[in-house]
Amino acid sequence: MADFGRTGFGRLNRAVFGWRPWRRAPRPTVEELGKDGPLTAMVIVAHPDDAEFLCAGTVAKWCDQGWTVYYVLVTSGDKGTHDPSLSHQALAALREQEQRDACRVLGVKEVVFLGYPDGFLQPDTELRGQIVRVLRRYRPDVVVTWDGFRPGFNHSDHRAVGIAVRDAVYPAVRDHLYYPQDQADGLEAHQVNEMLLAGSEDPDYHVDISAYLEKKLEALFCHRSQLGGRSPDEIRRMWGERMKNTRGRGIVESFKRVQIRRSSRPKQTDGQPAETPAVGQRSS
Ligand SMILES: [Zn+2]
User: Fold this and answer.
1) Cβ–Cβ < 8 Å for 189, 136
2) What's the 15 CA to ligand 1 centre distance in angstroms?
3) How far is the centre of ligand 1, averaged over its atoms, from the C-alpha of 18 (Å)?
4) How many C-beta neighbours within 10 Å does residue 34 have?
5) Rounded to the nearest 5 degrees, what angle is found at the Cα of 55, between the Cα atoms of 134 and 41?
6) What CATH class is the domain 40-201+211-226?
7) φ, ψ of residue 55 in degrees (nearest 5)
8) What's the helix, strand, coil split of the chain in %, to 5?
9) How far is the CA of 158 from the centre of ligand 1 (A)?
10) Are the C-beta atoms of 74 and 121 separated by less than 8 Å?
11) 3-class DSSP state for residue 212?
12) 122 CA distance to ligand 1 centroid (A)?
């Protein structure tokens, strides 16, 4: 088995041969989300390149179908290198640019960097509040994030983000008395009814990305600092082989779907960002 190194494509290696966030379609998939028209989605992950591994094919497909997709990066991946010449700040700037390039490939509308230090995330009330704030600002219908309760090996930042997002979606973002400063700043409470948890060991929602695999790879290759010495052509060849092995069943990205249904809430304006720009860089 190829070893692509400890960063970047080491994760691709695990992704392909290990827990596989995308895989052969296990059964015919019913992609219910968006069947009545384009939605607004927010992808909230820990590091630049997480989303490209987990869900870039899905994001490319959604954007192609007219969805509005936002990315939120909790850290800027400022420890993801073995190059001793790179400072935290230089690496963060590099990886933020790589993430912006990937978002441009996919058609993502906007990417928000929260600016937390890589490697030390905690699913605490402070992080939860920052996530509540971006949810209230951008008002997505669907949130994609890490499965924070995946029992197998995982990065602690992935766990922290998955748990913080889940706790932000229910109930904090919905109830205005949580983080009341948001309302004072003009950000109304919001209700998210759909979450797709990526990296789950028990996925039940599968998106056929066969037609978007090339786009996914193109976005992945934007993370040049993480390629681990592999050329895009080598990775593409590997994927070509993998596609052959699907025997025509297609490639999917898989998620655990979590639906939160609460019919008693007043109607809200989904997917319409509030006017205030007061989100993004962390305040402390
Ligand atoms: Zn990561």
Assistant:
1) yes
2) 12
3) 15
4) 16
5) 35
6) alpha beta
7) -150, 20
8) 35, 15, 45
9) 6
10) yes
11) helix
12) 14
